[in-house]
Design brief:
445 residues; five-stranded mixed beta sheet; alpha+beta; RNA-binding; 2 domains
Length: 445
RNA sequence: GCUGUGGUGGUGUAGGGGUUAGCACGGCAGAUUGUGGUUCUGCCAGCCCGAGUUCAAUUCUCGGCCACGGCCCCA
């Protein structure tokens, strides 16, 4: 039998119920924060992603040529397409733009739990406003989303790449990529700090003519743990170094203060100055969210301030701020937590308050019930019509299995009197009703 | 990129070099042509693919594919 391609998934109706509820919940939160949904193509020019992330990404892309020989690829992420769209369609729109998006992305990688070749990303971008308050708005939305979807035990880590970058350049490291190197000295240093590689850092300092003893205060800086209160010791460490700017630290303080006003208190918030996100286009605040029980693939959200609009000739709109939310991973975490707590609803509000009405024509011409089926549907009810001509007993089994709340049986005797038997399957109470929507609705309410 | 474990009806499983390949759930039908969720009966439906060893392979060996994990990486 033909199976689905590796790394892809099918979503059955039962699964889609909670996925759709989550999407709607995220969308509702985005709208409350002023963000509006956009959509871009599933495939884009290959160049869009090589411009953003370098040629190296090609190995992980579903890249192909169309019949005209144009180099294309399935999109591996959504930030670049949205930036492209802003440059192409929205130059004249009033700034800032608050955009949200949701869709499939494709990466040719080994897949495993929480990591698929086709995966779903929800995200937002704030374009045309920057600074600590813009960053706070974005973080606040992320917190609001995770809070409202009922996720528990998540940790948000907030940092600012400017702090370490300022310190390192202040000490004399270059933030430019030297000839023959594949990354700037500053980037190497940040990687060493993130990994706790003290020797590597000291060596790097020496080879750049910097006293290796300066690696010590930086190491202390990277090891600070805690919430907003860690900014004070950080300030002391940085103040002791000559020529190091405190501007980024001040900005982060403003951001954190604003977030505490704008959003609920997260289960765990840590200031982490080594959140690097591994990306050189991040310029300011960066943040990410982990969920412990997902293990190795536990990052469910990540974002920050970045410079990308200059790639489209719109450098004046840089930096932008946004985040991507790993929809599949949030679902996995919610499913795991619902299971652990014996919760029936994976996503809050996924169950429709309306009860399904199973309409069962019994020993009559089904045509006779179609009018009332339509009326009920027009009135907003969920109605399923029995189509297999089941006998009465089997029809009840069927109604029960599809999760119906009510059955409406119409047999020959009913038809003569223009009525039907409406039964509540949960209570077992049954009564005759006129075969028109308003009579039935009266009983339902 | 490295690596561990596993693949038997739709699902979950038992078994095992020669068997009518067992069980449970499921689907369909009947017992029960105007009231279901219990019970009973019947039916439906399976050894991932290829090569090798063998008189004989679903079972053993190798390869592939697929699935589930752990590292590396992760725009």
């Amino acid at each position: 039998m033909v199976q689905k391609p590796r790394g892809t998934r099918d979503f059955t109706p039962a699964v889609m119920k909670s996925r759709m509820a989550l999407e709607q919940l995220l969308e509702e939160r985005a709208r409350r924060h002023g963000f509006n949904r956009v959509q871009t193509p599933i495939f884009e020019s290959l160049e869009l992603f090589t411009a953003k992330s370098g040629e190296g990404v090609i190995s992980q892309l579903y890249a192909f040529e169309d019949k005209g020989g144009r180099p294309l690829t399935l999109r591996p992420e959504l930030t670049a397409p949205v930036m492209r769209m802003v440059a192409e369609e929205m130059r004249m729109d009033t700034k800032p733009l608050r955009l949200s998006y949701f869709g499939q992305c494709y990466r040719y990688e080994e897949f495993k739990k929480g990591r698929y070749r086709e995966f779903f990303q929800y995200g937002v971008e704030l374009v045309g406003a920057s600074g600590p308050l813009a960053e706070a708005e974005v973080i606040a939305l992320a917190i609001d989303m995770l809070d409202s979807c009922g996720l528990k035990n998540w940790q948000i880590r907030i940092g600012h790449v400017g702090i370490l970058k300022d310190a390192l350049t202040g000490l004399g490291l270059s933030d430019q990529i030297e000839q023959g190197a594949n990354e700037a000295a500053v980037a190497s240093a940040m990687r060493f700090l993130d990994k706790g590689d003290d020797d590597g850092l000291a060596k790097l300092f020496s080879s750049n003519g910097i006293d290796p003893s300066f690696s010590e205060p930086l190491r202390q800086l990277s090891q600070l743990q805690g919430g907003a209160e860690t900014l004070e010791p950080a300030r002391e460490i940085l103040s002791a170094l000559d020529g190091v700017s405190l501007e980024s630290l001040d900005e982060l303080k403003i951001t954190l203060d604003a977030v505490s006003s704008l959003a609920a208190t997260p289960p765990s918030l840590a200031v982490d100055l080594t959140v690097a996100r591994g990306l050189d286009y991040y310029t300011g605040m960066v943040f990410e969210v982990q969920v412990e029980e997902l293990g190795g693939e536990g990052q469910v959200l990540g974002g920050g301030s970045y410079n990308l609009m200059h790639l489209f000739g719109l450098a004046d709109l840089d930096p932008c701020c946004g985040f991507g939310l790993g929809f599949d991973r949030v679902m996995l975490a919610l499913e795991a937590q619902a299971e652990a707590e014996g919760r029936e609803e994976v996503v809050p509000g996924q169950q429709d308050g309306r009860g399904l009405i199973a309409v069962i024509p019994f020993n009559i011409d089904t045509q006779a019930v179609l009018q009332v089926v339509r009326q009920l549907r027009d009135a907003g009810q969920l109605v399923e019509l029995e189509l297999r001509g089941r006998k009465i007993g089997k029809a009840f089994t069927w109604a029960d299995k599809i999760g119906a709340t009510y059955t409406l049986i119409v047999g020959p005797r009913d038809l003569e009197s223009g009525t039907g038997m409406l039964k509540n399957l949960k209570t077992g109470i049954e009564q005759a009703v006129e075969l028109d929507a308003s009579s039935i609705l009266n009983i339902l309410n």
